[in-house]
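A sample copied in:

***
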Amino acid sequence: MHKNTKGIEIVTRPTISMLGEVKHEVSSKKDLKSWLVEIKVNGKVNQAQRVFSQSDLALATRTMLRTEHLLGNFSSYTRAATQGSKPADHTLRIGSGKPLRPIAA
């Protein structure tokens, strides 16, 4: 059975570019049947997309942040979207709070 679903709708196309290091703000708002994802550059909305499925929120946000990086607007958000975020601490802690060491195979 094929579901009739809507894709991602572009509300505002990016206009601000080549600023170098900027301050990004990412926000998502729930509307009646959709979510609005906005990316602000130094306080001004640069991109906005409407998503009709909650599972597409992360995809739309990451795609918009990658676009910001390609446009030359850099921040920790865009670097994480392009390189992937890696946890700072790779040790596991169970029960006693002592870190577990990796086991060699």
Q: What stands out?
A: Residues 92 and 98 are 8 Å apart (CA to CA). The first helix runs from residue 57 to 71. The first strand starts at residue 8 and ends at 12. DSSP finds two helices and eight strands in the chain.
